[in-house]
Amino acid sequence: CLIPNEIKTGGIIDGPLVFNQLTCNGVLEGIRICQKGFPNRSLYADFFDRYKVLAAELFDPNEFLEGKEACQMILDKIKLDKARYSCGLNKVFFKAGTLAILEEIRED
Q1: Angle value at C-alpha 42, between 38 and 45, nearest 5 degrees
Q2: Residue 38's pLDDT is what?
Q3: Are 96 and 40 in contact (CB under 8 A)?
Q4: Separation between Cα atoms, residue 106 and residue 36, nearest integer Å
Q5: What span, in angstroms and rounded, lies between the C-alpha atoms of 37 and 79?
Q6: Which segments within the chain are labelled E, that is strand?
Q7: What percent of the chain clears pLDDT 90, i.e. is strictly above it?
Q8: Entry pTM
Q9: Quick check: helix, strand or coil at residue 49?
């Protein structure tokens, strides 16, 4: 929910207040990412858990790797076109259709 104004009156929108709420809630960042063409995303831990089988020989179960590094190793191993994904701070973002490609590779 967004609060349109602080005086609790209908039909009045306080633009800076609404903009601040959209920014703090991550809505504007989500829109920016989708506009760049990366509508799908996955936390590094979730991506690693699902797709580690694609590069299992690269990972030592006794060695800790940061999520971003581990995911990048998987993506490099399967030679996924770098234009199809982008790595953020906590998530990897994918262009439309990329998750379907990953699932096909995973099934083989």
Answers
A1: 150
A2: 85
A3: yes
A4: 26
A5: 20
A6: 40-43, 85-87, 91-94
A7: 68
A8: 0.69
A9: helix
Unique residue bearing structure tokens 């580690």: 52
Q: In 3-state terms, what secondary structure has residue 67?
A: helix
Query: Tokens 């990048």 identify what position?
Result: 72
Query: In terms of residues, how long is the chain?
Result: 108
- C-alpha 99/C-alpha 31 separation (Å) is 19
Q: How far apart are CA 96 and CA 38, in angstroms?
A: 7
Q: Percentages helix, strand, coil for the chain, rounded to the nearest 5?
A: 55, 10, 35
Here the tokens at position 2 are 């967004």
Tokens encoding 39: 């509508």
Question: Rounded to whole angstroms, how far apart are CA atoms 19 and 14?
Answer: 9
